[in-house]
Request: fold
Amino acid sequence: MNFPKDLQYTRTHEWIRYQGDSAYIGITDYAQDQLGDLVFVNLPEEGDELMAGEPFADVESVKAVSDVNAPVTGVVEEVNEELADAPEAMNEDPYEAWFVKVGEISATVELMDAEAYEAFVAEEE
Amino acid sequence: MKLVFERSRAGRKTAYFPALDVPAWKPETPLRAEAPRLPELPETEVDRHYTELSKQTYGVNNGFYPLGSCTMKYNPKINEDMAALPGFTGLHPLQPMETVQGALQVMEDIEKYLCEITGMDAMTLQPAAGAHGEFTGLLLIKAYHKSRGDEKRTKIIVPDSAHGTNPASAAMAGFEVISIDSDAHGFVDLDALRQAVGENTAGLMLTNPNTVGLFDPHILEITQIVHEAGGLCYYDGANLNAVMGIARPGDMGFDVVHLNLHKTFSTPHGGGGPGSGPSGCKAFLAEFLPGMRAVDGKLERASRSIGDVRGFYGNFLVVVKALTYILTIGAAGVPETAANAVLNANYMKEKLKDLYPMAYDHVCMHEFVMSLEQMKKENGVTAMDIAKALLDGGIHPPTMYFPLIVHEALMVEPTETETKETLDEAVALFRQIHEEALRHPEIMAEKPEKTPIRRPDEVLAARSPVIRYAFED
Reply:
């Protein structure tokens, strides 16, 4: 299981990568492993407002549909439309398969660094 | 097997129409540019096609079908006989009232019986299936709050153990869904519920017994908490088979219910359907019911009806089958059915629990949930592998990976219509597969071996579905 050091993580298994005033958001390696083969992703639209801790997207595997929660409050600046056509990218390379780029960030949920998240996942196991 | 299009040859036919005895008429411009490409086959080929299809599928008539939460009980043939009576099959929904009194009697009688069983006061037969019944019930809740000018009530509370249709129906009806956690037994967490209710609460959706097969001991407190906050309580009737004739949703404090006639009341399910999902309510909601109800030999529309949710009277012939079932088993048979469903589930659970860890080792209701989590961790065999191996043993697998609160779940609902011998054979098969999984975990991923199709590529099917025949030209 992969836990890149340059990312921060949520208790609901999303990652966030800050870049200047904006941030990219996706789901973690552990999340994709638990969900299994992902076949569909429902993404928000540019300009949508995200609320920290609230669902902003959902992913569907052969087993189930799961919400993806926003780690931050902010506004969607960019949507990774390619992900909708190739949901398998979330399984193959979860840390490159970003969902949205968010700006105007005003609040965040409690975030963990890679080490803390790895320990958190070990506990979940 | 060959697809029906592959059997087709131009010009071959089966239908022999009687001579035209009305004036011929043809539209001046055809409604479509070209004729549809329907398969053309002689009757022998059609017959063989369907016989071949029937050999490739599996139903309650083939064997044990313990699909949890689906109540795959036997469908008595007398139901079909009654629904096939020409007085029912030849009806037109716009026939003069005096010529359809028998059909109205069917609608009145079943409404009376279903209300008696559920503790409701009125019911619509229009909804076509369970989720449609849920949607209808939620529209009643919406209409109620609106009629009182209480439009801030926009939230429906759903526990995380709920059937997936509950939050989906609530969202379809325009509500915001609030999910609350279950406690360690899969019951509603009362503190979480108390915190979730408020002046925005439109209602709570619940199934009881819940999705892990346990009767919620706090049910009266739950409905009271919701009522005190000004919300209404919705009962998902999917699990009614466990309690019908014994405990009534209406007495538990529920205001609205839906039933699945194709589960609890023995009408065919799935491809054998269609279904029927009547929605019932307490008297104070009856004025909002959709469609027409049969009352004293006449059809009446509720005074502030939400409108129609389906054409005319719903799946009427399914209703005939369900009424036949109720009349056949009678007032004593209704609770006896529930009791036997519960007995069968507990019998299997006790015979399996030393090998298959139970998610909740309580006396269960009509179904129980096992977790293969430990097996998966220790030797990599999943709930899916066990389910696939059961196919080779000639039984339908239980529901898998549901409820979502249990990992590697297998949810078994034997129903009351199975003999002890069938249950014993199934238990033996479950035990044998468990032993095999421990001894040869590596071969479990190869199961099933004897079915017409082995492991379909579900991921490919979901990502790139092929849903129509590709003609060569």
Observations:
- The longest strand of chain B covers residues 201-206.
- The two ends of chain B are 22 Å apart (CA to CA).
- The first helix of chain B runs from residue 4 to 7.
- Residues 79-326 of chain B form a domain with the Aspartate Aminotransferase; domain 2 fold (CATH 3.40.640.10).
